[in-house]
UniProtKB/TrEMBL annotation:
<feature type="region of interest" description="Disordered">
    <location>
        <begin position="1"/>
        <end position="45"/>
    </location>
</feature>
<feature type="compositionally biased region" description="Basic and acidic residues">
    <location>
        <begin position="1"/>
        <end position="12"/>
    </location>
</feature>
<dbReference type="Pfam" id="PF00280">
    <property type="entry name" value="potato_inhibit"/>
</dbReference>
<keyword id="KW-0646">Protease inhibitor</keyword>
<dbReference type="InterPro" id="IPR036354">
    <property type="entry name" value="Prot_inh_pot1_sf"/>
</dbReference>
<dbReference type="InterPro" id="IPR000864">
    <property type="entry name" value="Prot_inh_pot1"/>
</dbReference>
<keyword id="KW-0722">Serine protease inhibitor</keyword>
<feature type="compositionally biased region" description="Polar residues">
    <location>
        <begin position="14"/>
        <end position="31"/>
    </location>
</feature>
<protein>
    <recommendedName>
        <fullName>Subtilisin inhibitor 1</fullName>
    </recommendedName>
</protein>
<comment type="similarity">
    <text>Belongs to the protease inhibitor I13 (potato type I serine protease inhibitor) family.</text>
</comment>
Amino acid sequence: MADENQRTELPQERPQQSTTIPQEQPHQSTILLPGSVGHPSGVEVAPKTTWPEVVGMTVEEAERKIREDMPRVQFQVVPPNCFVTMDFNTRRVRLHVDSEGKVSRAPRIG
């Protein structure tokens, strides 16, 4: 019974010395995406996929504005009440126009 009450002492651990490992600076590369050219923060910006600000503009004005963000874009002008295919093209922007020839819906990639 005396053996059961006997306390065993564990060897004490020495406090470990902290070693600071110098961390490398993350590699900063510049990726130019539509909408990120000349971005003042220098942070990568997700590419712009829609342009609601051109609603109400003429086709020519809208094309000029969208080309600022996406220079190699292909435009498809869609008259009122026309059907379009459901395929997705990352280089195409459809401009849905009203009877006056003004953009009636926010253009988007596709």
